[in-house]
Amino acid sequence: MKITGIIAEYNPFHNGHAYQIAKIKEETDSDYVIVAMSGDFVQRGEPAITDKYERARMALSCGADLVLELPALFACASAEYFARAGVALFTRMGCVDYLCFGAENADLSQLNKIAGILVDEPRSYQDALNIYLKEGKNFPAARILALKSYLSAESSDAALQTEQLTSLLSTPNNILGIEYLKALKTCGSQITPYPILREGAGYHDTDILLKNASASAIRQTLKQAGSSGSSSGSAPDFASFSAAMPQEAFRIFSEYLASSTYLESDDFSGILNYLLLFYPAEALACFADCNIEIANRLKKNRSAFSSFTQFAALNQSRDITYARMSRIFTHILLHMTAEDYKQAKQLGYVPYLRPLGFKKSSSDVLGEIKKHTDIPLIGKLANARQTLSDDAFWLLEKDIFAADLYEQVLAQKNRTIPRNEYTREIVLL
């Protein structure tokens, strides 16, 4: 049995995702594709456009065989933690052969070269990085400059001493791809990395009419139109999504939006504003990605708060990106601290496997996982307390809290009764 893993958000699932699944099955002759997917909050520090069960349903309807939830603590973390958790999940399964990821540049040798430097962190690289950080550059920019400085001393790497290096480290899929390779090297995983060249529109391209339009384009179009449950805009033109999504994913997505609104960061503004008022700066500084300087800035500017996105933009700076500020706010909402990450790291990042859905025809893969994994496979959530250690259950409770918060805000916006995470059913197709 040959198994490929994909770490994804599917926010929402589009043609590029379907292409990746089909391509990896074709090129590796994989029997099954397993997805480690973000839950209800995603890596940019935002709520997902639809809940995790609907996104799992889209993936399963378009080629995936099993969808597992990436723990919430890591789903809305920096790229490094996001990648480490995804790789840990597949490695601890013990039966995954390939890790497939999309890349704007699928040259594995170049990606591996950069990953190796970032793992080893040679002294000259560290020195250059510290210089650029002290100059006030944010970490992504400082890292690119430090790598250029380090590679300029190696004539054998002249091919990477061009704008190609900037491209490799500036495009979202390559950034994640390098983090996956770093994680594989760091944990000594035997999983084979398998990059696939991203086809069509770029990650941030907003042209919804493109056949290979990005998830960003779909979300942007939806937000511009407003949802059927929104009082501020007209119902979205579902037909505009059809060219960008596989037929089954489009059907699931449009049916969801016809019966429900969607969530965005600003729907959490009231809760965030309260928490920023409630916590002193010293407590805010303990949340992941935050520090006392940022916390003091948030307290100083709090009187100017009007919304989640407005306040994130207001408090970004030359060395603090909007994405980092958004993640800080999400960490505050979900009560995720820097200490939580240390504790989860000691647990091996992912101490359990939680299916969100699977194909009945692919049930054999569950048996294969049970034979090889060294961590519990959660079937019914209600039984998890008896199955997991206290520490592992602590991490699972963060998943449950994130799902319940998402559902509470969604239900309030829809004026419906919120669903309980313990009663939600695994998607079976």
UniProtKB/TrEMBL annotation:
Its EC number is 6.3.4.-. Gene3D superfamilies: HUPs. It is an enzyme of class 6 (ligase). Transmembrane segments: none annotated. The keyword NAD does not apply. GO terms for molecular function: ATP binding; ligase activity, forming carbon-nitrogen bonds; transferase activity; tRNA binding. It holds the Pfam family HIGH_NTase1. InterPro entries: Cyt_trans-like, Rossmann-like_a/b/a_fold, tRNA(Met)_cyd_acetate_ligase. One of its GO terms (biological process) is tRNA modification. Its main location: cytoplasm. It is found in: Cytoplasm. It catalyses: cytidine(34) in elongator tRNA(Met) + acetate + ATP = N(4)-acetylcytidine(34) in elongator tRNA(Met) + AMP + diphosphate. It comes from the Bacteria. This is tRNA(Met) cytidine acetate ligase. The gene is tmcAL.
